[in-house]
Specification:
Layout lengths: L1 E3 L5 E3 H15 L6 H8 L3 H13 L3 E3 L5 E3 L1 H13 L1 H17 L2 E8 L2 E8 L14 E3 L4 H8 L3 H10 L13 H14 L2 E4 L6 E9 L5 E10 L8 H19 L7 H10 L1
Antiparallel strand pairs: 1-2, 3-4, 5-6, 5-10, 6-7, 8-9, 9-10
Helix pairs in contact: 1-3, 2-3, 5-9, 6-8
Length: about 270
């Protein structure tokens, strides 16, 4: 069945349902059984089974030894190809490398996907203690500096939608655990212009991030610096934030979001709006 919405975009029910299955499996921390998939998506078991079988045949979904379903490795291949083709990553790399040289800590470039952040790129310094992450991986938005940086600068209705989808899992004793606490942190982030993960994702790890804003001053990504808390100290945060701001200004110019003559004024306005 196919129809169009009032905006003229196509809606194909079978494809919509297939993507709903993938979204459900992607948001789950554990593989799901057929009954769980059918119940969560309000589908008959036979319908859910057909979708799962087709997705399994195309290696989008795979079955565990106990008969449950999880995302398949073909999606990892697609994700890697998408990241390789992502213009933002290519244009950001020179600026990230410069940032790592200046700070001697790990830099990340991330985007928001549902209630998680995806790591588009990572550049490491030549130091012995570094952050263990991988390109293409994801983490929850509420306990990462990149997630909070993007969230704080989203339009209010979009930010509220993301917050509703968050599972407030505690990863350390410092992890934000309620929507109210997260909203307070978002307000603090807007006021100072940068977000901090103060050992909220991992004990002993501190991260600071600023959003990359497009021509409409909406966040399209975030750039962060991460390192052990004994090196990335609270006293160093304002200085690192300034280096991050210089980095995203350069990326904004290269992406065509602002001209080089307007870059400083546009970036400053973003933090003071």
């Amino acid at each position: 069945m196919r129809d169009t919405t009032p905006q003229g975009t196509y809606k194909v029910q079978a494809l919509d349902r297939a993507f709903a299955v993938l979204d459900l499996l992607g948001e789950s921390d554990t593989p799901l059984g057929l009954a769980q998939v059918a119940s969560s998506l309000q589908l008959h078991k036979s319908t859910a089974h057909r979708f799962l079988m087709v997705l399994e045949r195309h290696r989008m979904v795979e079955r565990t030894p106990n008969g449950k379903f999880r995302l398949g490795l073909r999606l990892f291949d697609f994700g890697n190809r998408a990241i390789e083709q992502y213009d933002l990553r290519d244009r950001a790399q020179p600026h990230l490398r410069r940032l790592v040289t200046e700070t001697e800590e790990t830099a990340h470039l991330c985007i928001l996907e549902a209630a998680r952040v995806i790591y588009l790129d990572k550049i490491e310094p030549a130091r012995s203690v570094r952050m263990i992450t991988r390109i293409g991986a994801s983490n929850p938005v509420h306990c990462t500096s990149v997630g909070k940086a993007i969230l704080a600068f989203l339009p209010p209705e979009r930010a509220a939608e993301v917050v509703r989808r968050i599972r407030f899992e505690r990863l350390t004793h410092r992890t934000i655990a309620t929507p109210e606490a997260l909203r307070a942190e978002m307000e603090k982030t807007r006021r100072r212009g940068y977000a901090v993960d103060d050992e909220e994702l991992e004990e002993g790890l501190r991260c600071i991030a600023v959003p990359l804003l497009d021509a409409q001053r909406l966040p399209v990504a975030a750039v962060s610096i991460s390192g052990p808390s004994f090196r990335v100290t609270a006293q160093k945060l304002p200085s690192i934030a300034n280096q991050l701001l210089q980095c995203v200004r350069g990326i904004s110019v290269d992406m065509g979001y602002v001209s080089s003559s307007r870059a400083n004024r546009a970036a400053t306005a973003a933090w003071t709006a």
